[in-house]
């Protein structure tokens, strides 16, 4: 262990569930980084069986010298483990509320995957419990912590690189073999909160919020007029169209602006997934998916028809061996080390606002989950 490693804060993680999202998150925690601001250690893993846990560890820790976690065949033991500082919840959507509440009751800090809960009522229960207990909690909207997103906000809000934002288009399109999945798949089962809106639509709405009113989160975010169409079949939505119309704000110097957000689980989209149109140019955003952006391009409007528009590319790479989850993991660890109980980048008021927005969209389109009637 180097001298520098001894000086930085160590955070001990307990991981719930062994699905894809957990494997990617843990993989980032295990990556060796010379300039890491935090030393991440995974000390506990909770899953439904020892066999699942062993298989997960063998796969994710295959090339890692990091200590292997203690494997529990239940979640309760993770909450009770004294060697766990913060619990990462990567379970299906419908389990987020009970998992969060149990971890909070045990006095653990919590990073819970998006969506934070099924609806705003559930989310408020979690927030209230965390505040009462005095522990840290955050919704894991990992994309918000990408350096690319911070740079994009600066170009829109500080530098005004394309002038007044007027329109925004984003398409999160991914191909999921819904017809071939079992009925109890988390991607297909309504009781688990399946569907495009909660799974990927939340990213489209996040981008729209960042572009339409950069820097305004939670209760400070203006309320847009919302028009939506969800294609609902067998209790879940597989493709959605959502339009957010923001009124002009003369005090803030903002024109009327509109965001058009589309999502589908039936088609793989292109690398360039979003376009911001402004009075003085455009910004296109690209990456392997909207949740994992890699670059954006600013094209300035030409001063005359005979001149070529000025174009500038901004490309961002994640640290070697990581996918990008490490940005939010570092932020959570540093917040906890500083004694904070919430994030300034992804505040709880913003989580509640987004849940409220999605609740309204689902209600308008008749997409009701079992949890909505509780």
Automatic annotation (TrEMBL):
<dbReference type="InterPro" id="IPR036291">
    <property type="entry name" value="NAD(P)-bd_dom_sf"/>
</dbReference>
<protein>
    <recommendedName>
        <fullName>D-xylose 1-dehydrogenase (NADP(+), D-xylono-1,5-lactone-forming)</fullName>
        <ecNumber>1.1.1.179</ecNumber>
    </recommendedName>
</protein>
<dbReference type="InterPro" id="IPR050984">
    <property type="entry name" value="Gfo/Idh/MocA_domain"/>
</dbReference>
<comment type="similarity">
    <text>Belongs to the Gfo/Idh/MocA family.</text>
</comment>
<dbReference type="InterPro" id="IPR000683">
    <property type="entry name" value="Gfo/Idh/MocA-like_OxRdtase_N"/>
</dbReference>
<dbReference type="GO" id="GO:0000166">
    <property type="term" value="F:nucleotide binding"/>
</dbReference>
<dbReference type="GO" id="GO:0047837">
    <property type="term" value="F:D-xylose 1-dehydrogenase (NADP+) activity"/>
</dbReference>
<keyword id="KW-0560">Oxidoreductase</keyword>
<feature type="domain" description="Gfo/Idh/MocA-like oxidoreductase N-terminal">
    <location>
        <begin position="11"/>
        <end position="138"/>
    </location>
</feature>
<dbReference type="Pfam" id="PF01408">
    <property type="entry name" value="GFO_IDH_MocA"/>
</dbReference>
């Amino acid at each position: 262990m180097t001298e520098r490693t001894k000086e930085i804060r160590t955070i001990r993680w307990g991981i719930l569930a062994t699905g894809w999202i957990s494997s990617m998150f843990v993989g980032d925690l295990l990556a060796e980084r010379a300039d890491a601001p935090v030393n991440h250690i995974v000390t506990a893993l909770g899953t439904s069986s020892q066999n699942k846990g062993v298989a997960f560890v063998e796969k994710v820790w295959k090339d890692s010298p990091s200590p292997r976690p203690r494997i529990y065949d239940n979640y309760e033991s993770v909450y009770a483990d004294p060697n766990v500082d913060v619990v990462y919840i990567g379970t299906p959507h419908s389990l987020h509320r009970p998992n969060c509440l149990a971890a909070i009751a045990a006095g653990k800090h919590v990073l819970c995957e998006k969506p934070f809960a099924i609806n705003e009522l559930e989310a408020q229960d979690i927030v209230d419990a965390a505040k009462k207990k005095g522990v840290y909690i955050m919704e894991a909207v990992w994309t918000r912590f990408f350096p690319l997103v911070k740079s994009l906000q600066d170009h829109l809000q500080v530098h005004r690189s394309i002038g007044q934002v007027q329109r925004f288009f984003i398409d999160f399109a991914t191909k999921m073999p819904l017809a071939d999945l079992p009925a109890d798949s988390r991607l297909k089962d309504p009781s688990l909160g399946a569907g495009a809106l909660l799974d990927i639509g939340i990213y489209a709405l996040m981008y729209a919020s960042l572009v339409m009113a950069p820097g305004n989160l939670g209760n400070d975010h203006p309320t847009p007029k919302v028009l939506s169409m969800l294609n609902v079949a067998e209790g879940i939505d597989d493709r959605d169209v959502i339009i957010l119309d923001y009124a002009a704000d003369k005090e803030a110097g903002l024109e009327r602006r509109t965001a058009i957000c589309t999502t589908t689980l039936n088609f793989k989209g292109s690398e360039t997934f979003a376009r911001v149109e402004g009075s003085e140019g455009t910004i296109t955003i690209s990456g392997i998916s909207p949740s994992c952006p890699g670059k954006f391009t600013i094209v300035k409007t030409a001063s005359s028809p005979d001149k070529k528009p000025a174009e500038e590319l901004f490309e961002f790479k994640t640290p070697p061996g990581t996918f990008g989850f490490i940005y939010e993991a570092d932020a959570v660890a540093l917040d906890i080390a500083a004694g904070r109980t919430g994030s300034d980048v992804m505040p709880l008021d913003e989580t509640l606002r987004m849940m409220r927005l999605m609740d309204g969209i689902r209600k308008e389109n008749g997409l009701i989950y079992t949890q909505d009637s509780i």
